[in-house]
Specification:
Blueprint: H1 7-11, E1 29-32, H2 42-52, E2 62-66, E3 72-79, E4 82-89, E5 106-109, H3 111-118, H4 136-139
Parallel strand pairs: 1-2
Antiparallel strand pairs: 1-5, 2-3, 3-4
Length: about 140
Amino acid sequence: MRRGRDNAANRAVGAAGTRVIHLPASVRVYLCVTACDMRKSFDGLQALATQTMELDPFAGHLFVFGNRRRDRMKILYGDRDGFAVWAKRLEQGTYAMPFEPSGERRREITAQELGALLSGIDLSQAKRRKRYRRNVAAAA
């Protein structure tokens, strides 16, 4: 591993050479389950998060949007002093975005599932193994 300017980028690379997403536990990831117009930028994506997904874009969470062809993805992130948009266009292949008519406006996924989605893994066919999950209501 090289030292120097790209040391921080090297630390984010996992053992297999893939990038790892590290988010605080308080950050949630919301996936818009309807196809979006990828010409939208900050204001348009903020409106989608507010109106379509019925969530507060200023809450500091990630909002993931995909287009109808499933070859483009944008992620909106709002923090205390503004918004950031991350965008990616695939040169070949598609994302496994769940755009089926299910009646839901959004789907909450984990940061690990977002990483899998960005890597080309179909979440609908992936099986989650049982894990311990603390009951927040009982702990309070």
